[in-house]
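thought: fold this chain, then report.
action: predict
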Amino acid sequence: QVQLVESGGGLVQAGGSLRLSCAASGTSFRANIVRWYRQFPGKQLELVAPITGSGSPNYAYFAKGLFTISINNSKNTVYLQMSSLQPDDTTVYYCNLFPANNWGQGTQVTVSS
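observation:
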């Protein structure tokens, strides 16, 4: 059974940083794409950054230069390093495994002004 577990969310002041983790069990990232999403209340899921199992990243326009996605295949973990966080980044962040479409439970990020 595939499980994705996000961690690393929390409360941070504006301008601060957080590193989110997405740890997988029951599967390997190598042949997949791992994607970080976020979802604001009442809105659709918003893609933040995907990364291939070989480590090739991509970023949504708002994440470029501020967020960094990386993968550690030996730990079966994907990271999302977020810097210069702003209150507008406050929401729940999820990781997703494509194409299997597995989801984690989400981790709350709260940025105070």
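thought: worth noting. The chain is about 0% helix and 50% strand.
final: tokens above.
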